[in-house]
Specification:
- This protein has one domain.
- Helices cover 87% and strands 0% of the residues.
- It contains nine helices and no strands.
Length: 224
């Protein structure tokens, strides 16, 4: 390899590292905001003071993500960033009930299991030479399926359906994490270090982590 090729490779590697670092920093910050918001909402008693309004917070994240999916692709980096952190706050409020349902030790244990699973999937997505495009399409179809199943199960209240959704959900969100990391690398190669894409992928990774955490908590969490 020539000196020029080595120089270009070094520039690419450094740029990709900065892009990924920015993306993961936003993902981590969003998770921290949600975790703190969830805990304070529970610890201060706000969860009980809100009463029926908690149902609004339960469904608000879905509405916000649907709005983002239709309108957010052309937002500026500032608008994307503001939306992302507003979303993490709303999501944090919606997650507050887990502190009333599950033990603190159980929540912490599942969080670390989720973090380890997320890290492993991220590493695979970053290092693999296998094209995950077809897997991503399959996983998105599966995601639509479990969303429908979850909505239907609001009326059925079937523990068997809930268990199946959680198991399939763990597989789907682990796979989506690897897929999103590979897509982030491709986006960097095509568009360079555009901070808008860093925020967009941070949103995707944040959602993967939160959903993976909730699925695992339902499967192995210990209730109060």
């Amino acid at each position: 390899m020539s000196i020029e090729a080595l120089r270009q490779q070094k520039v690419y590697d450094e740029g990709l590292r900065n892009f990924m670092l920015n993306m993961f920093n936003h993902t981590s910050a969003g998770l921290a905001v949600s975790g703190l918001t969830a805990y304070l909402t529970f610890a201060t008693g706000l969860i009980y003071a809100l009463g029926p309004v908690m149902w609004l917070f339960a469904f608000a994240p879905l509405g916000m993500i649907l709005f983002y999916s239709f309108a957010g692709q052309n937002w500026s980096v500032g608008t994307l960033t503001n939306f992302y952190y507003a979303f993490t706050v709303v999501m944090g409020v919606s997650l507050a009930p887990i502190f009333a349902v599950y033990t603190d030790v159980s929540i912490a244990k599942v969080f670390f299991i989720t973090a380890a699973t997320f890290a492993g999937a991220s590493l695979y997505g970053y290092t693999t030479n296998k094209d995950l495009t077809s897997m991503g399409t399959f996983l998105m179809i599966g995601l639509i399926g479990i969303i429908i199943a979850m909505v239907v199960n609001l009326f059925l209240a079937s523990s068997a359906v809930a268990f199946a959704v959680s198991v399939i959900g763990v597989i789907i969100f682990t796979g989506l994490t690897a897929y999103d990391i590979q897509m982030a690398k491709r986006i960097y190669l095509a568009h360079g270090n555009d901070p808008r894409y860093g925020i967009q992928f941070a949103i995707s990774l944040y959602l993967n982590f939160i959903n993976l955490f909730q699925m695992l908590l339902h499967l192995i969490g210990n209730r109060e």
